[in-house]
Amino acid sequence: MDRIPILKMGHFLLVTIQVDLYDRLALSLENDLINMVSQVDAKGVLIDISAVSIVDSFMGRILGNIASMTKIMDAETVVVGMQPAVAITLVELGLTLSGVHTALNVEKGMELLQKRIGKDQTGEEEDYDSND
């Protein structure tokens, strides 16, 4: 697989990773995603990693980079579908994924993005936990 598909859904981009990412594919995804955020003026990015069984420190750094870059471009990033083994590995590696919001599944991730975007548009803070 040369590229990970990026789907546009309204103001959001949806990325469903169906394979374990090797370094070159992860870098390609990072580049493609940032370019797509700019091209379509996306306000949110949802990354579904439910099919990913291994997240190493490099992949963790790529997710953090994506969140940082999209935030600079006025978009939020939510990662959904993290398997328990992946969460355990990230904690054991000491990776906090700062700037990355998480949700249990795609539906909850979309709800979180809508809340985050709504907050940004009104300028008001909403009382919720982004790591539900």
Automatic annotation (TrEMBL):
Positions of the STAS domain: 2-113
Q: What is the lineage of its organism?
A: Bacteria, Pseudomonadati, Bacteroidota, Cytophagia, Cytophagales
Q: What species is given as this protein's source?
A: Rhodocytophaga aerolata
Q: Which Gene3D superfamilies match?
A: STAS domain
Name this polypeptide is given: STAS domain-containing protein
Q: Which domain of life is it from?
A: Bacteria
